[in-house]
Amino acid sequence: MRLPLSAAAAAVFCAATFAAQAQNVDAGRKKAEVCVACHGPGGMSADPVFPILAGQTARYTYLQLKDFKEGRRTEPLMQPFIAALSRDDMFDLAAFFAAQKPQPNAFKADPGRAARGKAKADEVLCTMCHLGGFLGQNEIPRVAGQHYAYVVKQMRDFKTGKRTNDAGNMASVAKTLSDRDIEDLAHYLSSLY
Question: What HEC string does 101-141 produce?
Answer without folding.
Answer: CCCCCCCCCCHHHHHHHHHHHHHCCCHHHHCHHHCCECCEC
